[in-house]
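Narrative of accomplishments. A recurring question from our advisory board has been how the design workflow behaves on a single, concrete structure rather than in aggregate. To address it, we present the structure tokens for one chain from the evaluation set, followed by the sequence designed for it. No filtering or post-editing was applied between the two.
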């Protein structure tokens, strides 16, 4: 990486279906100079998240699409390298929505200072960051698991799903994870102490899931949609709760409504089983749940009761390939790009 230039990755074309490397373009720019009230950030770690796929499309969502030629959006852990802002000094570590770039200017809005002594800084992008908060808030505000109930979550080795299952167990519920492949299932069961883990890639997945949930499902934390949702639907108990967090199985779909129309069966189940199905975006719950999340999950990490896994990729230039792979399950744990090795401390070696 050049130290005299900044690098950024922009959206060069809108994907149709699965993104291709050609949909991204790497650009070199001058290192920006902070003006009055601004600061310059050097990105240390960049988070790659499924929501970024939605921003590549030109359609209405909870956030505007990335314009063609615009820098791909994303949150990062960054170091303040120059500051004309009263609240930040050179050397501070922060989380910031820098996008996919090596250097960024900020006016201080939406920056959060990170104390590297509390937990490895990379946790602020995963278990103690936006994905972890999604798990915590969706489960507490909508899922509300009671002792003895069964909670099911897919993408169970990722930052959202892994915390959902562990929090369900802490609440006294039974946690059943769904993941792609035997290695991820073994991790959910053995390392994260889920009660059971089921591989959604096996041909008899629906029967295996039913066998893992002999008392039905009381909370299904929806991360993926698609075939997993079809297997879950008949197992939902009366008054089951379904926090709809994400639909990653559908993010690369070309046309909405392809294949069989499952809506009538879904609506019938919602009616006859008195289901609560509620979509949410994590930031809707910040005022009510954020402080408790940091305290409880922070304590859980410190005590070793809550575990997490991080999957590192080196170099901003490798972000597009890693991102495309994540949408198909090639990541194993929270996917993070080490953007600047010179800034790296040992925090990325301590993921548990
Ligand atoms: N609502 C919110 O505020 C919010 C915030 C953050 C994240 N989310 C959502 O939460 C979900 C999980 O996010 P994450 O960051 O924890 O991602 P992640 O687990 O690190 O990565 C996505 C995972 O999805 C799984 N997957 C992909 N295609 C699948 C398919 N067809 N069927 C089943 N599983 C599939 C893969 O795991 P396997 O290999 O195990 O299949 C893949 O590793 C996503 O839907 C995301 O959009 C929502």
């Amino acid at each position: 990486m050049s130290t005299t230039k900044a690098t950024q990755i922009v959206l060069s074309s809108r994907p149709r279906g699965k993104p291709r490397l050609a949909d991204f373009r790497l650009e070199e720019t001058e290192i920006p100079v902070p003006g009055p009230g601004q600061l310059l950030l050097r990105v240390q770690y960049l988070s790659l998240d499924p929501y970024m796929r939605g921003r590549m499309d030109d359609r209405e969502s909870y956030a505007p699409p990335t314009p063609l030629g615009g820098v791909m959006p994303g949150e990062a852990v960054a170091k303040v390298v120059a500051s004309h802002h009263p609240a930040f000094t050179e050397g501070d570590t922060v989380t910031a929505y820098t996008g996919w770039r090596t250097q960024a200017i900020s006016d201080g809005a939406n920056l959060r200072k990170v104390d590297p002594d509390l937990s490895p800084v990379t946790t602020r992008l995963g278990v103690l960051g936006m994905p972890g908060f999604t798990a915590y808030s969706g489960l507490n505000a909508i899922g509300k698991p009671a002792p003895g109930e069964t909670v099911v979550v897919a993408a169970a080795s990722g930052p959202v799903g892994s915390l959902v299952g562990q929090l369900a167990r802490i609440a006294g519920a039974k946690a059943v994870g769904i993941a792609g492949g035997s290695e991820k299932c073994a991790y959910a069961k053995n390392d994260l102490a889920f009660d059971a883990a089921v591989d959604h890639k096996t041909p008899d997945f629906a029967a295996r899931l039913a066998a893992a949930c002999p008392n039905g499902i009381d909370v299904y934390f929806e991360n993926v949609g698609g075939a997993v949702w079809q297997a879950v639907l008949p197992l939902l108990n009366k008054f089951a709760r379904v926090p709809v967090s994400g639909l990653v199985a559908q993010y690369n779909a070309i046309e909405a409504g392809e294949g069989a129309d499952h809506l009538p069966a879904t609506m019938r189940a919602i009616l006859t089983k008195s289901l609560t199905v509620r979509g949410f975006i994590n930031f809707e719950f910040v005022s009510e749940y954020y402080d408790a999340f940091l305290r409880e999950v922070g304590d859980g990490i410190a005590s070793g009761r809550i575990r997490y896994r991080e999957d590192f990729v080196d170099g901003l230039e490798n972000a597009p390939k890693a991102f495309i792979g994540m949408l198909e399950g090639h990541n194993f744990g929270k996917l993070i790009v080490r953007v600047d090795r010179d800034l790296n401390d040992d925090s990325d070696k301590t993921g548990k």
